[in-house]
Batch of 2 targets.
Target 1
Amino acid sequence: MVNKEVILNEDELRLKLQEWQKILRLQDWNIEVGIHRAFSLDVGRMGEVKATPGNREAYITILAPEDYPPDSMLPQGKALVSLYRRGERGS
């Protein structure tokens, strides 16, 4: 069985953001995070990043735990890194 990390609320998400900002050396960025229901994201998305690199600002949303696919290989908390990396490439 895969050990899946579940983020239940925005306080936990902000703590995870602080951890990953250090790992990715993004402490000088203003990053806001939120947990959103599936109906507020594009179909099939587990989260989204809206970044303005020139201003070092980003808004990251991840899928609410109640909407997270039970068969997903990607733990919910890892979505932060995955989303950041996609946003970094401009996707």
Note: The mean pLDDT is 79.
Target 2
Amino acid sequence: MIAVQEQITQLMVDAEKAIAMAADLRALDDVRVHYLGKKGVLTEQLKQLGQLAPEERKAAGQVITKPSNKCRNGWTRAVLRWKPKSCPYVSLNNP
């Protein structure tokens, strides 16, 4: 479990750096897809929960879900920073 926590912590550090370094909305969306998309890094971690024993699943789920939500919130804040005022149709419902 500790190895998973360390891995998730490193993924979050990487995700936060990628969000901060995104130069435009397209780059920001690429970050979202990489971490939160259907085959994203954090999404793949969530998919692996089913392979764990039931007693381990809840704790592991919390370890993965909280950072995933934090990443999604960071992405949303960054989109709001980059979203042009003239383009009201940028969706925040893409996670």
Note: The radius of gyration is 15 Å.
